User: Fold these one by one.
Assistant:
Number 1:
Amino acid sequence: MTANILIDESLLQSYSRKIFGFALSKTGHEQNAKDLSQEIWLALYRSLQTGKQVDNMDAWVHTICCYTWSNYLAKEKRHWNHANIDYISSLENGNRELFTADMEELLENMRLEIAYLSRLHRDITIQYYYERQSVEQIAKHLQIAAGTVKWHLFEVRKKLKEAMKMEQAADRLSYKPVRMMVGHCGTPGPNNEPNCYFNAMLTSNICVAIYEKPLTIEEIARKIGVASAYVEDELQKLEKSDLVRQVGKGKYQTNFIIETMRSLSAETSYFKSKAEELAEEIYACVAGKLEEIRTLDFHGTHLNETFLLWALIPYAIWTQYYQVKDEAYYVQYQPDERKDGGKYIVTASIHYSDEEYRSSLPNHEIVRKYATNGIKTRNSHNHGGLQMESWWSGMTWRDFNAPDLDDLSRVVELIESGASHSEYDRIIISRLVEKGFVSMESGKLECLVPYFNASQHKALNRILDQAFHENNFKKKVDQIYEDMISVCRKDAPSFISDKEIVYKAMNDGMTLVFAVMEYLERKHFLAVPADTEKKRLTTMVWQFPSSNQ
């Protein structure tokens, strides 16, 4: 049938009633229905005047009605909320040659909204609307009742209708994704450290999205702008590791504290004031005892005063800080075992741009140096060690582990005994030279970091304890504990346990070390370390007492 045949009096009257009925059912308004009817007739005429043959005129007229209605809606996008999935799915199977850009956009929006659906709703939607399976077929495939499938289809229609009404938020994470820096305090489980779960930005953005308010998978997907399938996979891993928890029915929430610009600003401002109050006093306690400490004749005694103070002052703060409470207090607030077998708390912070840090942090040029890439305490069977990654060491991660302690002990034995070096000894020495811990110049083996045997270490602690006791330092540090608990509690979500808050506050309190070192360097109490010293800066090793000592 051609356009000339269509436009005759009888067919015109017959299709006029059908077209107007269609238009009225869509618009619900008589004048709008008349306008839409006219546009449908124009579209019919333009389509058929080319001489196109039509075998089923009723079906063809209905198709043109649907396409014209879509264009009509596209003129004013606020009307798109009238569109439903039944209508849009019919467009998917239509003649794409007749599609306008707006119709393609409508289809793309609906595909996006379907991608946000949860797995079950997504599967049912695709099977019913795209694969054209019946309710009974879907029920059999999913092994659920047909009535349940119908209920889910009703829920899907409701969700998609609401979604098509929504205005996308301009500040959602899909437009401005964040990066997180993730570490831990405590002992990781057999599946490695928690930061191994955060290799992709997706994981960070999921955790940020559900930090302050629990969300469903679909809500998370919308907020971060990715398909629910990706969210589901990440949530499964995060939940198994206890980094995310289920809250109520189908909602998820981040199960650790994330440091934001707000909390970072409060914390750095606090430690700047504490450094101004305590730094010179701490310096006097350690520097005033340096000559007495040198008399212990530890390995590294010959090193220059500045380098030794860059190790001894952080060590002194560390030891004094963790003597403030009695042993029962520290035991009480140790982290519980997590699902992944670790006993740790997550230390996570949002990584902002340099511009954001500068504009949001008071005294940015000062407090940026409070950042650390790790305070590492290490133990082997016979030795302990401490190394701090700081602004002045270059903020790189230096491998510092139990074998390093034992290897350095072997080097000390060789220095003291003067014994010849075996092939294995030469391998150890070469490795420690590369780390900067020892030197081998002109055939002379030398230790380049402070190394204390058990009696020397005991004497060192006695000297430092006496110096700090005279200044009533314990009371001042105890106040830092309480203040940091208040800071952490104020910023943490309400569900975070008191144990985790206290443990985090306790560890965050060690920021005092870097605030003090920054103050001492800025005020010229300490010189900036030489570049050649960075590899071994703020590193100490000591021997444990033997069982008969």
Number 2:
Amino acid sequence: MIRERLFLFDTTLRDGQQTQGVQFSSDEKTQITKALDDLGLDYIEGGWPGANPTDSAFFETRPQTRATFTAFGMTKRAGRSAANDDVLAGVLNANTPAVCIVGKTHDFHVDTALNITLEENRTNISESIAHLVAQGREALFDAEHFFDGYKANPDYALDCLKAAYDAGARWVVLCDTNGGTLPSEMGEITSQVIASGIPGDHLGIHTHDDTGTAVAGTLAAVDAGARQIQGTLNGLGERCGNANLITLIPTLLLKEPYASHYEVGVPAEALMTLTRVSRMLDDILNRVPQRAAPYVGASAFAHKAGLHASAIVKDPTTYEHIAPETVGNARIVPMSNQAGQSNLLRRLEEMGIDAEKGDAALSRILDAVKQRETDGYAYDSAQASFELLARRELGLAPDFFEVERYRVITERRRNARGEIVVESEAVVTVSTRDGARTSFFKNEHAQDIQDDGPVNALWQALKSDLGPFQDKVEDMRLTDFRVRITQGGTEAVTRVIIDFADDQGRAWATVGVSANIVDASFEALLDAITWKLLRDGVSAS
């Protein structure tokens, strides 16, 4: 059976940058471009040359890619020729092998937004595409508001598509710009477009997630015959985002009927980097990765219930639709007060510890977990702390260092300019195998630093001088900080869960509990460093 080719078009650097609060630097765009190219994407849309200084600088220094690099722009304006339109010229001057231009296909927008005649708009589309083709570029036409336009005036919407196709567009892309079209409608309308004379191997789909169905809508369009898919990493995009390529890629490669019927340019070895690529983008954006994200989320292959964990030990396919390592993820069997010996045995095995069912040590660990969760701890989302707890019960936890004392002070005052500032300072005394050392940190320019709190001051002091272990903690960074008050009244305690990451691509979480939020945080910080040293194979002696 000959498989049809599906082409993947990434618009993270253009449409993804329209996400509220997202603005990539030129260097970040280069980093993302390389990751996309390594992944095997067919097209990478770099942005709109000339629209802003960052995009202009990026196009001047963009990396060479195997993927077809694409510039984005708009159709020529009415009243001038395509050759004399300065906006279109600016896009062409980026010298990319492909150019994607957007144009109106909804009569309402032509009348209201452009304030020109329907025929003028159709001419703008046709002449713009013809000009790109004449310049030797691969031309793509983004049919803006197409699905809404088709429902309002199908004849005109189709005329706009045909104008682009007849002028030489390699791809005519159906855009659900407002994100309100449901998958069933999308599939039906895509079929009607193909029936009108535009072949599916020249048809693309571009969806938004305003109804939470962007991925489903994309697949419906593919089922109907569209052969180019546009989307973004992690579903970035304006409002609710675009179709998520991180979800679409493994679905196309691993799920039927797509795996058998279509060929996608992402090889199996690149698919195994998918989780890392997703988290790389979150790291660039300083965002916490979504734990429940399909395929790549930290909870995507987490099995908390004892019944599930017992079955997973026997055969992972009992509760997993794919093997997590296929997409570079990992299976997690969290520990909680719902846990049984099956969960525990699985976790110990993953930690490299041999144990047998019925071992007395298992009961001690489970009892410790249940007691500590009664005290306010939560280990289902703090696996690193659980591993340390288990190792301590088994006598397998090394003592890398000991904290003799710490002190943290926070001061709110006016500075010399009369501005209110908050400054924190911390002192930590640590004993290691080569003696005791005291480290100090003071935030002296709080107004210029994003995190000026006491926990950050403690963290900076703690990791600033760990003697023989210092080089092992340099790449550690905090990625999330969560606080929950447990119980209530005079018995209330604070639970702090902190997420960490390092340059090796590892992510882990630790938990601390105390009536004092700073002390709870400090406990979680200590666990995080200990787990990191343990996983790096550091010797405590």
Number 3:
Amino acid sequence: MTYKSTARRAGLGVSMMAVMTSVLPTATAASASLSGPTADVAPAWCPTVDGHQVDCGRLDRPLVAEKPELGEVKVSYAVVRHSAPGPAKGTVAVNPGGPGETSIDKAEAFAWGLEGLLKDHDLLLVDPRGSGTSQPVPCGVTDAEYRFGTRDQQRAAVERCAKNLGPKTAGYTSAATADDIDAIRAHLGVQKLSLYGLSYGTYLMPVYASRHPERVRSIVLSGAYPLQLDPLARPSAQAVSLNLRRVCERGVPVACDGRQAVQDLATTAARLRTQPITVPITTEHGVYTKRFTEDKLANLLFEAASSQVGFEPDKPTLLGRLPHALDRFVKGDTAPLRKLVQEEGKTGSTVDQAPYIAVTCNDYRKAWSKDAPLSERWRQYNAALAAVRPGEHGAFSAKGFTEGTTDAGDVCIGWPRENTPDPQPTTLELPDVPVLVLSGDLDANTPDASGKKAAAQFRDSRFFSARNMGHVPELEPSRCVTGISAHFLRTGTPGDASCLRALPPIAVTPVHPVRG
């Protein structure tokens, strides 16, 4: 989601494994030779992973099932082979989020995190249709345009995306991606998969499990949210305030007062609601002007501020700097908050957003009926906002926070009825297999409350929260989290998870004097 898609980067959905990639050493020696039902020569995009053979290929898949006239789409995959002699004891299929986040270019990062498991397990990486090395089906809306636009501009971009895709909009669904993964599984001759989903992957993998239950061995979901997600994003809004209190209280010495930080947030949100500020942002793709309103503040605090938390706990992060920036804003100094906005905005890319926009608008629950005309959709949505109880969006107004989301609220309200499949069902028959669900307790993107609901979808599930970690907890550098995941994928049990409670607090910029 950004909720899952994640501080978004290319494809809007950030994966913590994507961040890992930037700090891992480049492989010095690797084999990309192919064996089995794959090509004789590795394609140029096939990754190298030190100490492992990597097999790559592509499958032609129907763009829209039962509509052959719309053609096919090529879906790319890579298999990182286990290093020990003998056959693999299992195959783990990973999706890092998005929707539309790429997997194949993160092969080295996944191999680092799951190093022990890859001794006797293979790793299957699939670039979802329309992303990465898989065949693009663009709609003409870029990441930077979508992220930096006002809410009106975002809604207009969504409508333009749908118009440009036309009947191809129905080709972008979680069900289609799940079926692509299963077709690749069958092509490779693998009997069962262990599923590992991060962020949006925690939505996709239950969809796969419901459609192909006999092919699932076990499941790990990290940075999770349920299929029955809240279209008004209330869990994230409430987690923003909780996270401000936690980062303030956990510092030694205490750097800020958590209750005051939440009050400063409410004051800042109210001020921006009526008096937005303008912030110029320079990226490698151009200069943008962001109208920083309550909704952009919400996006900054629940999405961007959840990114990279716990990666280097002793170094400044957006979340750790927020209490100070909010304190200064309330006192009339806008510079610290402006700086955070500018720094977060530098990563805007030119990646086409069709895989992100179409999946979220096709699949996710909405506060209106898909079959209603636009005027009735607005009536239904406004009625849902009006029914929100005071405080359900924490320090924000209901309208302000929901407009800060890029995959919820009203952003998809203009998505057309025609060419659009029914939303993804939220109540599914899921296989009775071992399931591990992980959250970071400083993640407002997919907070603990959402992770617990994701775990409750399964009969045999375990939920763990990683202290002082953001979205998603695999970013943690000691491999505590990935070690637990790897142990679970091998044995069906989490083993000793005590390290999750011992992760160090993040650095927080002091607010002096501490008010409260």
